Amino acid sequence: MDGRRKYRKILGVQFYAGDVHGAVEQVRQGGLLVVPAAPALKDLVVNALYREALLNADVAITDSAFMVMIWNLMEGDSVPRVSGLEYLRTLLRLEEVRVSGNTFWVMAGETSAKRNLAWLHGRGITVPESCVWLAPLYGPEIDDQDLLAAIRRQRPKHIVITLGGGTQERLGLYLKRNLDYLPAIHCIGAAIAFLSGDQVRIPGWADRFYLGWLFRCLSAPSRYIPRYWAARKLLPLMMRYRSKMPGKAGEEAA
Question: The domain containing residue 64 runs over which residues?
Answer without folding.
Answer: 3-248
